[in-house]
Amino acid sequence: MTRAVALEGAPHGVTCVSVSPGWVETDMLRESAAILASKSGRSQAEEIAIMGSSNPQNRLIQPSEISALVAFCCSDAAAGLTMEDIQVTAGALW
């Protein structure tokens, strides 16, 4: 979809970039960790730590990192950036 929109929009000055984050520290992540904790016998905090440790940077992505990237992509400074999927994964390959 990103490629199609980028190609069709290019003659009209429309760009299209997708952002694919890994584990982002949000309420939804905390809810998922609580569900996992209820099944695993570990605490919610332990489940969250496991998620963070699955990344080479050993941390969760922060919502502010995603919002800063999206704000940049929407700015004139990113006019040449199109037809890309930007993966924000703290180094994870999955």
Describe this structure in words.
- This protein has 94 residues and is mainly α.
- It has one domain (2-88): NAD(P)-binding Rossmann-like Domain (Rossmann fold).
- 46% of the residues lie in helices and 11% in strands.
- The protein is built from 4 helices and 2 strands.
- It has helices at residues 2-9, 27-40, 44-53, 63-73, and strands at 17-21, 84-88.
- It has a two-stranded parallel sheet with strand order 1-2.
- The protein is elongated, with a radius of gyration of 17 Å.
- The two termini are 21 Å apart.
Question: Care to give the gist of this entry?
Answer:
With 94 residues, the protein is mostly helical.
Q: Separation of termini?
A: 21 Å
Task: Tell me the number of helical segments per DSSP (H or I, 4 or more residues long).
Answer: 4
Named CATH topology: Rossmann fold
For the secondary structure, the number of strands is 2
Major beta-sheet overview: 2 strands, parallel
The strand line-up of the biggest sheet is 1-2
Indicate the CATH class. Answer: Alpha Beta
The number of domains: 1
The shape is elongated
In the CATH classification, which architecture applies?
Answer: 3-Layer(aba) Sandwich
> Helix and strand succession?
HEHHHE
Mean pLDDT: 97
Structural category is mainly alpha
Q: Give the fraction of residues assigned to helices.
A: 40-55%
Task: Extract low-pLDDT stretches.
Answer: none
CATH superfamily: NAD(P)-binding Rossmann-like Domain
